[in-house]
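Per reviewer request, we include the raw input and output of the structure prediction for the construct analysed in the revised manuscript.
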Amino acid sequence: MSAKEIIPTERIENRILLLREQRVMLDRDLAGLYGVETKNLNRQVKRNPERFPSEFMFQLTLSEKNELVTDWHRFNSLKHSTV
């Protein structure tokens, strides 16, 4: 995806979840919107923490992950992942 391409609003809205009373996106969905691999996005977050304020991210708990897998077919790939 080039820097000048605009991501359709529907594509973003379909990836937003309500967790902990906050609207959030999973790292894999955010990486997909930017056209990068999830591991590369997470690597950049670890290497540049000043660019990614902690109040804008959190890690799912095991129970939250299990609830996503149970309730949403598109998260079946998370079933055997670590939290």
